[in-house]
Amino acid sequence: MGPAPLSDEDALALADAPPEALPELMRAARAARDAAWGRRVTFSPKVFLPLTNLCKNYCSYCAFRRSPGQPGAWTMTPSEVGDWAGRARDAGCFEALFCLGDKPEATFPSYREQLAAWRFEGTVDYLVEAAAIALDRGLLPHTNAGLLTRDDMARLKPVNVSLGLMLESASARLCEPGMPHHLAPDKHPSLRLQMIDEAGQLAIPFTTGVLLGIGETRRERVEALLAIRRLHRAHGHVQEVIVQNFRATAGTSMRRSPEPDDGEIAHAVAMARLILPAEVSVQAPPNLNAEGLGLLLAAGVNDLGGISPVSPDYVNPRHPWPHLDRVAAACARDGYTLAPRLAIYDRYLHREGFLAPSLAAPTAAAAARLERLARAADFAATPSADERAGAA
Q1: Which own/partner contact pairs does 283-287 have at CB distance under 8 Å and 24+ positions apart?
Q2: Phi, psi (rounded to 5 degrees) for 32
Q3: Does pLDDT of 361 surpass 70?
């Protein structure tokens, strides 16, 4: 399994390591990754289903959220969910990623009226139905719906193989006036850490992560990773941690803010690998690092997250998914093999309590289909949704 993770004290001491220390950090992270995960880099063939982009919060960097009547505002209908899920299954997807804004029913009467017309009392009711639709089409749902209560998560567990919530930062400083989370009350780290903790109490396989370049310090990033580690050590439920770099987007308050450079990204990825327990996957999105996959691998990444053959990245629309054959070739150049995976990691499939009994049969069917795909090794020939659009 490789060396033990860094102690809290050593991790904090390395938070502000000088630039000349970075190569050694990266070498140590690569060794830890290879010891735990071998020479295999994974990704999840998925469809991105933005159930709604209405959101009560206003983050300074977000290009996804909308208010009712604003150009681009969208709430998917149940029939659209079914249509997209069916196309995704036919295109070789396994995961239905439901990603949406925080608690829009708390802010927008017109959204509440729309849900009522569909006979849903709230967003969670709709998510339960949408996940059931995806399951019926042969996909395994993973939901990131922002801040959820313990009861919400208990309701979603029977129809989701995993749930997610980006911690982003453990620093309450980013919620102060003038900072990116000032108008986003659901981004307060105490609330997000509470949800991650409660997900562990409910034995829900969980995805979380940190966001780089939104005003946090290196020490604050390390503190966020240590907070995630403490919760995983308590419950064993964190299956993957995303290290996501901020990309400036037109139309947002942070459109002119500097993006983290390669050194910052490499440091954050390496520290994640050296801090987190060996069984926790370290993930970074390749579409936000289009020219930097080699850097991510060199810093200790073992997973590339979801890549879709049918839908764009609605959160980062300016950054298309890469074509899988290019990703596979980049991995091969560094001695790694690219392989598809499910939205629930293997270690949770037979761990008591983590997979709801209602999901056993669809998960087994998806696992068998995935094994056939991996054996055929033809997934890399599948273009991403953005590659399809470019060829049209």
Answers
A1: 283/209, 283/240, 283/241, 283/242, 283/243, 284/242, 284/243, 284/244, 284/245, 285/242, 285/244, 285/313, 285/316, 286/321, 286/322, 286/327, 287/313, 287/316, 287/319, 287/320, 287/321, 287/322
A2: -65, -40
A3: yes
- Using only C-alpha atoms, the chain has a radius of gyration, in whole angstroms, of 20
391 falls in which pLDDT band (50, 70, 90)?
very low
Return the bridge partners of 240, or none.
Answer: 207, 281
pLDDT band at 373 (very low <50, low <70, confident <90, very high): confident
* Strand locations in 116-252 (E): 140-144, 162-164, 206-212, 238-245
Q: Give the 3-state secondary structure of residue 35.
A: helix
Rounded to 5°, the CA angle 291-296-300 comes to 170
Closest CA to 97 of 255, 235, 232, 285: 285
What are the structure tokens assigned to 33, written together?
Answer: 């990754």
Tokens of 233: 């050590």
Among all chains, which residue has been given the structure tokens 């070498």? Answer: 27
Domains annotated for the chain, with CATH where assigned, are 8-391 (3.20.20.70)
Which residue spans within the chain are E strands per DSSP? Answer: 40-49, 95-99, 140-144, 162-164, 206-212, 238-245, 281-283, 303-307, 337-340
CA distances from 389 to 72, 179, 309, 325, 392 (A): 19, 36, 10, 17, 5
- Amino acid at position 342, single letter: L
In this structure, are residues 336 and 39 in contact, taking their beta carbons and an 8 Å threshold? yes
* pTM assigned to the model: 0.94
Structure confidence by residue, pLDDT tens digits, 323-353? 899 999 999 999 999 999 999 999 999 999 9
**What's the length of the chain?**
392
Residues 87 and 143: their CA atoms lie apart, in Å, by 19
Q: Are strands 95-99 and 140-144 parallel, antiparallel or unpaired?
A: parallel
Token pair listed for 47: 């469809």
